[in-house]
Amino acid sequence: VLIAGNWKMYKGPEETVSFCAALAARLADVEGVDVAVCPPFTSLAEAVRLLDGTNVAVYAQNAHWEREGAFTGEVSPTMVAEVGADGAVIGHSERRQHFCETDETVAKRIRCVLDSDLRVIACLGETEEEREQELTEAVLSRQADAVIGAVDQDAAERLTIAYEPVWAIGTGKNATPKQAQDAHAFLRGLLVDRYDRATAGAVRLVYGGSVKPENAAELLSQDDVDGALVGGASLELESFAAICETAAGIRS
Ligand code: PEP
To answer: Cα-Cα-Cα-Cα dihedral of 211, 238, 34, 106, to 10°?
Structure first.
């Protein structure tokens, strides 16, 4: 199980130091769950420094598809690796919505991240309108094809897919456990078509969208839900730690 906290555009270096120190201490005895934080770029180095030697990994929130070049404002996977981070989140719906991220750029970014020996959390999910029009599976299929088309069998163990229905992100309105399980089972089927069974089973499918301590247990106990990508509730130590402890309790 993986519980990853997406900090979005919150927590500069100073706050990162105090938060990570407290998080490491709080989770020192929590076993059976992989935990990660995803700070903004300028806080990555501090997070890596504070969490070195702990059970908490560090992911960037994005990375470019080239290792270097004339791409003002972008950060490459090589640079993310150089600060000691473990991976990068790619294709978050906020990137797709506000920064013109497409399936094509998502696939390119994923390839470069994996080529840099990093892990990737690739995000996908339907909008409310798409769900209402019964387009959920068509959208997931299109987005997942782009993601898994970019990941060879031998790199798939470093892939996590985050199913994040757009209507559930930051809205307080989470998917029901059944909606999450149905989407994850559908995605698992696509993985089985692409990889051998063992590999398809090993790709982690995490759910994201208004996960809180109150709903974590029922979402995380679904068969194909291998963890959570947590936004808002990852910004407070107590709520994030509570979700991590819930995950550890379910899987142990
Ligand atoms: C996210 O940022 O990926 C997310 C799921 O946010 P929230 O938990 O706030 O809905």
So the answer is: 50
